[in-house]
Amino acid sequence: MKYITVLDFEDGKVYQYENLEHLKDGWNMDENDDSDVIEWYLDSLGHKLSNIEWMVHENNKIITN
Known about the structure:
Largest sheet: 3 strands, antiparallel
Helix content: 10-25%
Strand content: 25-35%
Structural class: alpha+beta
Number of strands: 3
Oligomer: single chain
Strand order of the largest sheet: 2-1-3
Radius of gyration: 12 Å
């Protein structure tokens, strides 16, 4: 399972989204192939693409220290 973590500079929060197989046009589990789909999804959630950084990864643990 892969995750997308978003650092949103606008509200100062970190968001994490799970396996997105339900997305329009699919989710190939390959960031290079899916970047347009991922950005469309993040935009649809209200994230402003100019104010975020995002990454795809397999471990959902967030390190807080």
